[in-house]
Automatic annotation (TrEMBL):
It comes from the Eukaryota. The gene is bpnt2. Its main location: membrane. It catalyses: a myo-inositol phosphate + H2O = myo-inositol + phosphate. It is a single-pass membrane protein. The lineage of its organism: Eukaryota, Metazoa, Chordata, Craniata, Vertebrata. It holds the Pfam family Inositol_P. Its EC number is 3.1.3.25. The keyword Flavoprotein does not apply. CDD domains: IPPase. This is inositol-phosphate phosphatase.
Amino acid sequence: MAPMGIKLSPLGVAVFCLLGLGVIYHLYAGVISSRINSFRQRKNVDLRDLLALSIEAAVEGGREVKRIREDNDLEERSKGKTKEGASEKLTLGDLSSHRKMYYLFKNTYSFLQVNSEEHEEVERDLAVWSRDIPNDVQQKVRASREVAADRITVWIDPLDATQEYTENLRKYVTTMVCVAVDGEPVIGVIHKPFTGYTAWALVGDGANVLPRSEYSINAPKVIVSRSHAGKVKGFIEDAFGNNTVIIPAGGAGYKVLALLDPPDEEYEEADIYVHITFIKKWDICAGNAILKALGGHMTTLKGQDIDYSGSERNDGGLLASVKVDHKALVDRLSSVEKEKH
């Protein structure tokens, strides 16, 4: 008698195969996932390269900002209202600069986290970093310093001072890039599109800017936002006295440069930069890195360091200084807050 065979229907064969694949998946999925994560973690980026790329991105974005302003083709519209109720402007300059800057990073290091002020979908730009290291970077940053990519967050502001840009107040306009490692700002680039001036710093390695020789915290010159100058006046005078000079200005990048040795005659010199409401991190990260590289400080009004790895908002206000007793400034502002409450 012939041995009996087992015949499987086509459906049975399919079920059997699926069961086999399921077993294989469960056996190897963990291994594959582990190897993928290990591969990702092994990606390192040289901070000197990132500095050179950041400079190039800020300059290329600035070219777009300048071109569109000079062509008078802003295509201005509103993104909505700010928390204070002012109209938040958006122009073709913002979007074109964002496109250039964002894709320079993503086409070069696709695995990096890049946060930009502009979130609108734009056509992909094919530009990639030229791999050029500027001469002053080569001279001041001689050693490579590699960092794991998953520790890095890049913040870009394609057009700082958009309101002033629409008013053709060109001196306030900048493009900015910041690189944070573990939430701490380490690379800062502030570029002025209409003069071609670029300030940069890599914390621990060097900068192409310097602080001024003297600052005052007795009746200081305090630079503040143009849109909040009236509201902040009493607060500043209560802290530093009625002789305090208050300088209204546009753009966070401009305000940080006003604390430093001025790059050109357009700048008003300030001793302190104060902002009393919330502010987005792409507005302040680059300036924070530059001040930190020069031994200065940028904190909340209560003196807390700002973390650049999470939310895009900084809700604690802003106090920036260089070559002065920052804690003494914090104490003065805190005393005013306590008196009012």
